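Support request, please re-run this one:
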Amino acid sequence: MKRYGKYIKPYLSAFILGPVMMIVEVIGEVMLPAMMADIINVGAANHDIGYIVSKGIMMIATAFIMMAGGIGGAWFAVKAAMHFGRDLRKDLFQKVQKFSFANIDSFSTGSLVTRLTNDITQMQNLIMMGLRMMLRAPGMLIGAVIMAFMMNASLAVIILIVAPLLAIAIGTIIRIAFPRFEVMQKKLDRLNSTIQEVLTNIRVIKSFVREDYEEEQFADANEDLKKSSLNAFKVVIIQMPIMTFAMNVTVIAVVWFGGNQILNGTMQVGDLTAFTTYVTQILMSLMMLAMVLLQSSRAVASSRRISEVLDTEIDLTDEASTCTDRIVTEGKIEFRHVSFRYYKNNQEKVLDDIHFVIEPGQTVGIIGSTGSGKTTLVQMIPRLYDVDEGDVMVDGVSVKEYSLKNLRNGVSMVLQKNVLFSGTILENLQWGDEHATEAEVRKAAMAAQADDFVSHFPDGYETELGQGGVNVSGGQKQRLCIARALLKKPKILILDDSTSAVDTATEAKIRECFHTTLKQTTKLIIAQRISSVMDADMILVMEEGRIVGKGRHDELLASCSAYQEIYDSQMDREVGA
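Re-run finished. Output below.
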């Protein structure tokens, strides 16, 4: 509750007024049966029309006051719940935004989506229901019990027999349902992950004609969710028949014993009518409490899942930074005996004793077989992961000493997976510099060889891109991502196999622009083609997480067998072609 107090405090008035106004409705509900009893016992028995009319007017006035209280209580409950959900969702989203890659790896995308949507909705529903029932159900229960005992204590004993039995039944239902709701939420995670993966990769699925397979995968996840949901709710649905059965048995007992008292002259007809209503109110209030408790069991499961995200310790922070105001000014990079493991308990290192120095403005190529650690290596520079051993230096200062914002502002990175967002091409490119003019955007696009094809679109830079840039080709997407990175005017530019979908002539033009317009920028180019890095000032050859060769193209041909093998295999393919 301490955690959620911050989301309640700003809207405390709504959290208070909602239940208070519901009490107005409760008072009316408790008063109405007594008024009806007076009409029957006094007005009808004495044929006193005036008395009946006056009591009727009082009942109508009470009903209007109850309506105002009910509407007001419901409004404040909704207001409090929606504000609570919005603020919690915002904080949860902001926490996810601060996650490092390692933190994100511990949650699936589908799970995070479920926690940000469905789990928070469950908590909203609990607050909404709780504020409406918090005082209403106990108030009606207490008020109806008091009125029932005041009216006929001997008949009210029936309630004392039924209520504990109902409480035991409800408690048993909740105890069984709670763990089943946790399982249900996990199955919902899996379904969301499946949907997200399918929709993101729909073109790959279609190209491999794998629709049937994916439909089976979705059907399995959907079936699992259905089964776990039924498993949870089949316990919950027992509640209503039990409550209805208890209510009917109690009413029958009250009518039976109360009818005998009427025949004996110890109870009036109006009192029995009112007493039956009070019994119904007591059982209804117990039903409301049961609904709140059942919703609570589901919300508690969701709360735990939300807490898992909020309690996740972010492993990349500025807390230990001593140069938080420092910015990247030169672009010098030094790796000092760096080692790294994705799984810290694993003996095998992804990077093992990496050591090199890159001077400002140099172009460095990184080449090696798949899985050799090339991408992991460059991710250490903007501190997307932290090294396990050694240190990464930028401009002579450890990357851990920079603030994450200042360090990453000095580095532009085009990832292996090129990502564009829904919106116009201009809006996408302005991610590099949100204040860039259209002329500056066009200049960056020209350097990335993207201006020609963008200009041929009917709407030019105002062309709307589909989600993920689905309406441009792979090569066009790569060039747009490079343009976005260039617009940032970084001191360090990292291209992670970012021209693989571009023809060699276009790639050569992009490299030429790098030499002419980015002389002061340090450039790291991960590539599969030797032709992409042959002109680099230095080439790093990686194999199984280690640097097995370092130097210029001619030097490596003479001294590095791994580089020679890559060169020979690619040259043979070109000759064969």
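The chain has 20 helices and twelve strands. Residues 127 and 171 are 20 Å apart (CA to CA).
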